[in-house]
Amino acid sequence: MRNISKLLCFVFFLVVFGCNQKESSKNQETILKGSAIIYVDETLTPIIEDQVAVFESNYDAKIKLVSKSESETVNSLFKQKGSIAILSRDLTSEELKVFKQRNINPKVTPFATDAIAFISNKNTKDSIVELKDVISFMQGKATPSIKGLVFDNLNSSTVRYINEIAGIKSVPEKGVFSFKTNDEVIKYVSENDGIIGVIGVNWLSQPKPSMKKYIDNVNTLRVKDLKGSQSYLPTQNDIAEKKYPLARDLYIINCQGYSGLGMGFASFVGGDIGQRIILKSGLLPIRIPTRNFIITKSQNDEN
């Protein structure tokens, strides 16, 4: 009987100790201190790497970035591999229901607008691609102006975005190729004529040093909208004026459920410093950082 009592006490001790350790671990993390894992849509990796680098240099925090396709990034939340994700779309109503069933209320922070860019080899004569031709090609129709489209990943946000515009659920079997990363798409297009690459524009504005020679051998194509006759580039100005037809908003999805680094990082990215980083990268911040000017009177000024 005594042995049974001792065993029960020991089990009770392990349970209490385990719970205390878990609670202690959570308490060690604050909005500006501790460590966290953030899953990020691979098409957005460069700008988020910049944000993390500055955030870590300012605070006692360590963030591990895990770059995956959009589908894998969303699944990381559902499978509870991670509780913070960065996407080029908001959660759907069906996805929100899943979290509500778990008594989790995701905090969604929009922080920037970027764009999907079309690129071609420098040897390609055309500098403009019509969006209607891209749609026709994705619908499996013969399109003389497009020989092939190359995406980073069939589960990526770029494929999902173009599929939605084309009104299709899956890509055609012919003429559409995919790799694993945006860098691979850029490299392939730079070495092959007549192919159009589909990538996140941030990979062009902030390339790795090793990618510069490939970036120099591709052109960013102007895109002609479905309605107008004008064509536009995915520049900060054309995105801000809502002229470029393939712009998309970016979001931080925080499902931690407590005041942790997810909240702190989202506040940082949405704050003045984070928004200046967005502005400098060539993307469009959700709010334009203010600039203060001090006007002084020169000695040469007339009284």
Automatic annotation (TrEMBL):
Alphabetized, the UniProt keywords read: Signal
What the entry lists under InterPro entries is as follows:
PBP_domain, Phosphate_ABC_transporter
Q: Which residues form the PBP domain?
A: 37-269
Q: Does the keyword Chaperone apply?
A: no
Gene3D superfamilies named in the record: Periplasmic binding protein-like II
Q: Which PANTHER family match?
A: PERIPLASMIC PHOSPHATE BINDING COMPONENT OF PHOSPHATE ABC TRANSPORTER, PHOSPHATE-BINDING PROTEIN PSTS
Q: What is this protein called?
A: Substrate-binding domain-containing protein
- Species of origin reads Flavobacterium pygoscelis
